[in-house]
Amino acid sequence: MKKILLVIAVAVLVIAFFALDLHHILTLDGLKASRERFETLRSASPVLVTLAFFGFYVIVTAFTLPGAAVMTLAAGALFGLWWGTVIVSFASSVGATLAFLGSRYLLRDTVQKRFGDRLKAVNEGIAKEGALYLLTLRLVPLFPFFLVNLLMGLTSIPTRTYYWVSQSGMLAGTLVYVNAGTQLAQIDSLSGILSPGLLLSFALLGVFPWISQRFINYVKRRRVYARWRRPAKYDRNLVVIGAGAAGLVSAYIAAAVKAKVTLIEAHKMGGDCLNYGCVPSKALIRSATLVHQIQHGERYGLEQAQPQFSFRQLMARVHAVIRAIEPHDSVERYTALGVEVLQGYARIVDPWTVEVALNGGGTQRLTTRSIVIAAGARPLVPPMPGLDDVGYVTSDTLWDEFAKLDAPPARLVVLGGGPVGCELAQAFARLGSKVTQIELAARIMIREDMEISELARASLTRDGVHVMTGHKAVRCEHESERKFIVVEDGKQEHRVEFDVLLCAVGRAARLTGYGLEALGIQTQRTVQTNDYLETIYPNIFAAGDVAGPYQFTHTAAHQAWYASVNALFGDFKKFKADYSVVPWATFIDPEVARVGLNEQEAREKGIAYEVTRYGLDELDRAIADGEAHGFVKVLTVPGKDRILGATIVGAHAADLLAEFVLAMKHGLGLNKILGTIHTYPTMAEGNKYAAGEWKRAHAPQRLLRWLEKFHGWKRGARS
Ligand SMILES: Cc1cc2nc3c(=O)[nH]c(=O)nc-3n(C[C@H](O)[C@H](O)[C@H](O)COP(=O)(O)OP(=O)(O)OC[C@H]3O[C@@H](n4cnc5c(N)ncnc54)[C@H](O)[C@@H]3O)c2cc1C
Questions:
Q1: Does the beta carbon of 422 sit less than 6 angstroms from any atom of ligand 1?
Q2: 589 and 627 in contact (C-beta within 8 Å)?
Q3: 395 lines ligand 1 (CB under 6 A)
Q4: Which atom of ligand 1 lies closest to the CA of 273?
Q5: 58 CA distance to ligand 1 centroid (A)?
Q6: Residue 245 Cα to ligand 1 middle (Å)
Q7: DSSP secondary structure string, 458-512?
Q8: What is the pLDDT of residues 250-275, one digit of tens each?
Q9: pTM of the full predicted structure?
């Protein structure tokens, strides 16, 4: 209501301005004609005229009325160069700020709500360098004054910043105009004041902030490198620390573009993913799924059966799978690709020198133009009393420890309700362990929508996992051979007895012990980098789990491209890491896969969305496969087919998601998915049917009613 009243007041003022013919006075000819009258008035009561002029100027600029340029000339003619400049400088800045506040008050919420996600980059840019952008816009008077006020009002730039940057940015232009006003009699046209030469000078002034930014960067660089002695030349173009997903891809790219690159790995080639993460967990899940399917053979028309298996053999298969994939990440393969691989522990000595304590003995020093830190993360172990006494496994130790067992642990406690905890809890429950999963938060898989968490919980519970959410693990205890974990739910403590405790509460970036501290490279939970993945040293980059914010193999590989390309070619062109479309999956049964926004995130970010859902229980292939459960859920921009995000729950959800990832990456909407032939009968048809659901909900009803009449008429015409 207040907003409507304000709009009405503005409209009335604008109409009055034109009705009172003020726009004719505020023309060059009008000014010249009434100059003498104004001068007489000013001599009679200078303070009053100055205040009235100031106030009128503020109104003209605040309401974007025509005449500000003429009034600036008038200021020169009436008050002279210095007073005129002072009056106009303040009046125009106050007016601009009022216009800016008007736009912010009336339009910003609506615009941010409507285009919030698309404005994300703009908002981030404004938060970082808003003052610089504004100064440029103000210095170059090519950008219309009112447009700058209107558009900046929609951003998050603080009002105070807006005021002072506007005032300083407009000062040069104000001086030029006011000065011209002192020579009013000789001015024939407004455009003449800004000659091409003058515009060029302004443009140069506009470039000045960028030049100064570059200069500041140069000074910062010099300062950060000041205490180190740069080598005269380097042995290598790139040294990569860590041979997990991020390190392998960085080294691969460097070798592919013929750079001299050394990859250093202290432990196992392939890092977490191959040795302790994705690969063994998915191999385990496959066996557990098979056990589960055999147990429920009646669903497929078989006799119900209890599968016979040796856990030792099952774990041997897990290790066999690792061995089968090992050659992809091996020293031999990378050496053949042109990468020098050193096995040892790397330490950054100075920004261009890395020292390697070789696993075989001895050390080696390498000088390099650039470094990529790809040191990964390690399992987080909570500081819990008694934990060390009872002992525990993590994703790092579990695979070797369990390989020694003849049977899965009878009672397994899984600490953590994230993706890794859920995947392993379900797999071991299916293999026969009595699993208790403990999670501090109110639900498991907290990043997903509530309905997904509930679905995952139901699925794990069905498989025998006792899911305890809202429970804090406080300590571990043992009584002779018996081991317990004590948890509390806010009211009371409970003891859970176990044979093995698996810590899966997250993974912490490796940040210490290899030189970051001595170099002063900033770390919080991860190595701090800018958008180009540069640390405070522009030749040292970080990628993968050590850099965050994601902890996936595919994001590590994605970042590796940016880190290595920026490291090798950043002098010519640098690329900002693009996280606009990041998919991920949790490989429980049913799989949960997501790309882009879910409902919970859209609400948090204030982004308007529509939900379209297709139930996979209706899909022919899902029914045939005995997998008729789950759904495809797509979030779109209201009234449009533009995809904001998709979540799929069901068999092969992670594979099905690829279509939405591609669509989002390349701006393809649901209409395009609907118009694409999908093979029958496949699970992928679920994506097309989801698009079909959206189409049905957005069918043009009025047109359809007309079509109905048209067909009726055609039937009548024919008969
Ligand atoms: C159980 C589990 C399941 C997972 N499942 C999936 C999944 O399904 N999908 C998915 O995308 N992700 C999954 N992940 C996550 C995935 O494994 C990681 O995101 C990925 O491995 C990160 O790769 P990285 O290169 O950043 O680090 P890492 O793979 O950890 O590699 C870092 C390497 O650096 C070495 N290193 C560290 N410091 C030094 C040093 N100073 N000198 C020399 N070498 C050093 C380490 O030895 C290590 O080998 C899973 C993780 C776990 C634990």
A1: no
A2: no
A3: yes
A4: 17
A5: 60
A6: 7
A7: HHHHHTT-EEE-S-EEEEEEEETTEEEEEEE-SS-EEEEEESEEEE-S-EEE--S
A8: 999 999 999 999 999 999 999 999 99
A9: 0.77
